[in-house]
Amino acid sequence: MVLNDFLQNIIGGVTVGSTYGLIGLGVVFLWQSINRINFANISSAMLTAYLFYSFYTQLHFNFFFSFITSIAIIAIYGLLLRYLVFEPISRHGGDKLEFVVATLMLCTLWLSVIKVLYGGLPKPFPPVFGESTKFVQIGPISIPSVYFWIFFVVVLLIFALFLFLRKSIIGKMLRATAQNREASLLMGINVNMTTSLAFMLSTTIVGIAGILLAPIYFVSLELGGGSIGVKGFASAVMGGLIDPFGAILGGIAIGLVENFSTLFISSAYKDIISFIILVVVLIWKPRGIFNWTAKGD
Amino acid sequence: MRQILKKIIYSAFLAIMLLLPFFSRSDYDLFVTNKALLNIILASGLVFLTGFAGQISLGQAGFSAIGAYTSALLTTRLGVPIPIAIICSVFLSVIAGLFVAIPSFRLKAFFLSLVTISFGQIIYLLLVNLTDFTGGSRGLFNIPFMKLGKSPFTNTLYYYLFLIITALVVLLMNRIKYSYIGRQMFAINDDEVAAEACAINSKRAKFFAFGLSAGLAGLSGALYAHLFGFLTPDPFSFFESSNFVAMAVVGGLRHLSGGVVGGFLLTWLPELLRLNISGFENYYLIINCVIVLLVIVFLPYGLGAALFKALSRLWGEKQSALTLRNLKNKSNNIERE
Question: Is A20 within the bounds of a domain?
Answer without folding.
Answer: yes
